[in-house]
From TrEMBL:
Belongs to the N-acetylmuramoyl-L-alanine amidase 2 family. Residues 1-20 form the signal peptide. This is Peptidoglycan-recognition protein. Residues 33-181 form the N-acetylmuramoyl-L-alanine amidase domain. It comes from the Eukaryota. InterPro entries: Amidase/PGRP_sf, Amidase_domain, PGRP, PGRP_domain_met/bac. It holds the Pfam family Amidase_2. SMART domains: Ami_2, PGRP. Keywords: Immunity, Innate immunity, Signal. Residues 22-175 form the Peptidoglycan recognition protein family domain.
Length: 203
């Protein structure tokens, strides 16, 4: 009987590992490569940056996993980054995909402390970057994508990855870019966590 209980408990643990923290599709599941460098992220984090990719929408599991692999290849092989750039990616299928994740600093140069292009102050480079898999300049995110982002951030607070009073900003508030797109930016400006004045977190 004791052996059966041990096997059952082990199975539950394995299920949680496969599922991933906060239900995200893990890097292993979508076929991601290991980073060439790791910079650990002190937690809990109090800043979340929302941005978007410049890629077509993916609406199926297969298409979104392909998009993740292609994005990582571009970031690492073409741009020379140590890993895929953002913490998490959200597909049109409503699923969240692990990038750098909750534990590691994203590989985007402007978001790292030692990069000449850094736009954030050294005290606020501890950020979670959530990127929507779509080119959202004129279109809006799907309801599934918005719900997935909100669920991820809620889970982040409950799991101790985010502070209870974290702030959300749009990518365009920090550097000269249209990201996260006009309609998505309009949406996040209605969120209670949105920070309008970012002067305190920029160099």
């Amino acid at each position: 009987m004791f052996r059966v209980l041990i096997i059952f408990a082990t199975s539950l643990c394995l299920c949680e590992l496969v599922k991933g923290d906060c239900g995200v599709v893990t890097k292993q599941q979508w076929g991601g490569l290991q980073p060439t460098h790791v910079q650990y992220l002190p937690r809990p984090v109090d800043l979340v940056i929302i941005q978007h990719t410049v890629t077509p929408m993916c609406t199926t599991d297969t298409a979104c996993m392909d998009r993740m692999r292609n994005t990582q290849d571009y970031h690492m092989d073409t741009l020379g980054w140590w890993d895929i750039g953002s913490s998490f990616y959200v597909g049109g299928n409503g699923k969240v995909y692990e990038g750098a994740g909750w534990l590691h600093v994203g590989a985007q140069p402007w978001a790292t402390t030692n990069a000449p292009l850094a736009s954030l102050s050294s005290e606020t480079t501890k950020v979670i970057i959530v990127e929507i898999l779509y080119y959202l300049v004129n279109d809006g995110p799907t309801t599934q994508q918005l719900n997935a982002v909100k669920a991820l951030l809620k889970c982040g607070v409950e799991s101790g990855h985010l502070t209870s009073n974290y702030h959300v900003v749009g990518h365009r508030q920090l550097i000269a870019t249209v990201s996260p797109g006009r309609n998505l930016y309009r949406e996040i400006r209605t969120w209670p966590e949105w920070m309008e004045d970012v002067s305190s977190i920029k160099n």
